[in-house]
Amino acid sequence: MANGNRAQATQRPRRHFNLKSRVATCFLALIVLFGISLLIIWLVIGPKKFVYTLENGSVQNFNLTDNHLNATFDFVLRAYNPNGKVSVYYDYMESTMTYEDQTVAFNTIDPFFQPHRNVSRVETKLVALNLTLSPSTFKDLRIEKSSGEIEFDVYFKSRIRFKVGLWKSNHLTQRIVCSSVTAYLSWYKHFEKIPCEVKDYMAELF
C-alpha cells in the first residue's frame, strides 16, 4: 500500500506539470499565429506615412501694447494621405501657436474625414486677444516686429481613427509639430512652406 501511494503521489505532479506545459505551448502558438496574421495584414495594406506641410500663413492686425498682444494668424495645413487602403477620421483637432515656449494663440478645428490617396487642406484661425506677455517675451516680440518678420512654432493635436475596409481602429493621439514658422508682417513677402513632423503613434506604426 505504501508503494502504491508513493506511485500516485509521483504521477500527480507529473500530470500537473504536463498540463501546464501544454497550456503554455498553446498560448505561445496563439501569440505566434496572431503575430503572423498582423504581419500579413500589414504587408497587404502597405501603410505609408501621412505627410503634413504648413503651406500658407498670414498675420493681420498685429499690435503690441503694454505687455499685451493682439493679432490674428491664419494658417493652412496640407494633409496628404498617400495610402491606397487606409482612410482616417479626425474626430477632434486643435491648433496652438507658441513663441518662446509661451502659448500666444489657440483654436479648435471642425472634425473631418480624409479618404485614401487624398490631399486635404485644413484652415485654422488663431487669435491672440489682449494676451498678457512676460516682459522678456514682449521685448523680443517688439524687436522682431521691427524687423518685419516673427518666428513661431505651430502645433496640431488630433484624436484620430484609421479605417481599412469595414474595420476602424480605436482612437489614437496624433501631434503635428511645425517648427520655426516665419510670419511676415510685410505684404510683399510670401510665406515659405514648412514641412511638419508627426509625433507619437506614427513612430510606432511606421
From TrEMBL:
Can you give the residue ranges of the Late embryogenesis abundant protein LEA-2 subgroup domain? 77-172
Q: Where in the cell is it found?
A: Membrane
Tell me how this protein sits in the membrane. Answer: Single-pass membrane protein
- An example Gene Ontology CC term for this record: plasma membrane
* The name this protein goes by in its record: Uncharacterized protein At1g08160-like
Which Pfam families does UniProt cross-reference here? LEA_2 (PF03168)
| Keywords in alphabetical order | Membrane, Transmembrane, Transmembrane helix
Q: Which organism is it from?
A: Durio zibethinus
Segments passing through the bilayer? 21-45
Offer one example of a GO biological process linked to this entry: defense response to other organism
Q: What is its main location?
A: membrane
